[in-house]
Amino acid sequence: MAENPPINISLILGPVVVGALVNALLTGVCMVQFLEYYDSRFKDGPTIIGLVIWVAVVDTFSTCTSSYLLWHYAVDSLENKVGLLSTPWQYSMLATFTALISIPIQFFLAWRIRVLSKSIVFFVVICTLSLAQGGLALATSIGASLEPYVEANGRRVPFADSFLAIAVACDASITVALSYYLWKSRTGMKVWLCWSGTLIDFTKPRLELTRVVVDRHSQVKPALDFYIARGPIVHKHPHDGSRQLICVYD
């Protein structure tokens, strides 16, 4: 009978404990955001609502499987070498769960960038990176499920590293591009600065001024700037596409 190979507990149980705890923390943050979204009653389309529900369901299921994985290694197999060396399906499916959450979100944000930039290049690049990391994640999960022991998964490290590297590159591209185009399209701030200077010059020092600017640029959500005061409201519709409420109290 072959002897079981030596086990480094820190390399098996350590990452599982840290990963399960961090995943639970992030899931809690996501669930708070999901409840806030549900409570706010946003009138979004079925695509966005479906995306939010999909992410919440998959993330919850992934957290449950990672919690079971922690129980498997820390409780059920704590004194069982065979159990510590085993790779249950929850272990193999971690990469796939990550891809199932990230790919729809990356496609959605890539389309937002496409709308803001009016360029197909960013959309194609981001979608290509997203599909590539999804394919590598699936290959990693399939390969891990075929290995009976944890130590044999060392052969899958290049696939896992490539999957993580491409995922980081995709997320970084989305962050940079979306931040740039959202900042570039902030026309409401320029309008606010212009009107503020004009009104301050022509009003008395004791006047209180407020204004609400709703900048409806492109197809993104309205950006609101509030300055609260009392008095009659003058509602103007300038030709630049924005809506302005000016309130002056004497």
Automatic annotation (TrEMBL):
Keyword Transmembrane helix in record: yes
Q: Where are the transmembrane segments?
A: 12-35, 47-71, 91-113, 120-142, 162-183
Q: Cite the entry's keywords alphabetically.
A: Membrane, Transmembrane, Transmembrane helix
Return the protein name.
Uncharacterized protein
